[in-house]
Amino acid sequence: MSTLMDDIKTTKDALDKARDESIISPRFYSTDYEAMDRIDITPVRAEWDAMMQEFRDDPNGEHFQRDEAFRARVADLEPELRAEFYDFLISSATSEFSGCVLYNEIRRRVNNPDIKELMGYMARDESRHAGFINQSLKDFGVNIDLGDLKRKKKYTYFKPKYIFYATYLSEKIGYARYITIFRQLQRHPELQFHPIYSWFEQWCNDEFRHGEAFALILRANPHLLQGHNRLWIKFFLLAVYATMYVRDHTRPVLHKALGFDPTGYDYEVFRITSEITRQTFPLTLDIDHPRFRQGMETLRELGAASELARKQGGVRSSVKRLWLGAKASLVFASVYLIPSKVNALPERVRLAPVW
């Protein structure tokens, strides 16, 4: 088994993994709820109302139901694949539940009817997603106590604009990840080792719709896309891409089982996400620039070395991790300085999930 992959055997192991605070772990967030209450979506009212009707119609209301054969189709996985699949499921459940907690708290704390209604529907969707993944973990006897996770996971404070940038990207890259896997298994059904992947096509449409909501909020408030905020947009794009790249390369056996090379998979996801974000962001990253690709590889190597040092423990390992973190910051800065590609925003904001 990979020395970088935790050996998950019990529900306690699963909860400990979900509570992990490493740089590539999903986080829980809080924000300025009074500022959220002041969000105005008037400039995009027509597109907003059409989107909200889709949320009310709830097209995936009956989708997250396990058929009787679901558990019977759970394969007895090889140890390395099982460990990486557990890691994928726990990370995914934590990320989905993070969205549920954030959206529900915003819904509870604001009076703005547009934001309150939106957050209620998105919390509903994310709760379904997290619960569905957790049921698959339960099949293996390693499900997460989500209530305990909500109480004990550390929360990171983000200004509303950072929430908008980060969650917009999270939802859209989530769509790109799920649809890329689904399309691969459409072409190669013999590679589907677990039934959860059959749910991904309709599932990822929820992620896409959530991203559309944040796209409309950002486009309704154009100051969030101008001036120094362009620097923040570039930062979040690079941070999300780099985190994904480092994390996915800790699961080589899982990607191989799905017929992917992690690097090829990630760049396909980057390509789709870059195409989608042109609806909202005034720039995209130059993902084909040689320095970008070399930077991603260097960050991967430094991330693997840091994780190995973390598992070894001790003072020397802590010092080594600080040194590796400093090197990673310099690499990140170097990649950040690669000129981005300017993007003219389209008049119509919304897109259809056609990838």
Structural overview:
It is a single chain. The chain has 355 residues and is an all-alpha fold. It has a domain of 203 residues. It contains 13 helices and 4 strands. The strands form 2 sheets. It has a two-stranded parallel sheet with strand order 1-2. Strands 3-4 form a two-stranded antiparallel sheet. Helix 7 crosses helix 11 and helix 12 packs antiparallel against helix 13. The chain is globular and about 55 Å long. The model has no long low-confidence stretch (mean pLDDT 92).
In short:
By secondary structure, this protein is mainly alpha-helical.
Chain-wise SSE layout:
Layout: H1 11-18, E1 28-30, H2 33-37, H3 45-57, H4 79-109, H5 113-139, H6 146-152, E2 155-157, H7 160-187, H8 200-220, H9 229-248, H10 252-257, H11 262-277, E3 283-284, H12 290-312, H13 315-336, E4 341-342
Parallel strand pairs: 1-2
Antiparallel strand pairs: 3-4
Helix pairs in contact: 3-8, 4-5, 5-8, 7-8, 7-9, 7-11, 9-11, 9-12, 12-13
Radius of gyration: 20 Å
Number of helices, where a helix is a run of at least 4 consecutive DSSP H or I residues: 13
Q: Strand tally, please?
A: 4
Give the biggest beta sheet.
Answer: 2 strands, parallel
Low-confidence stretches: none
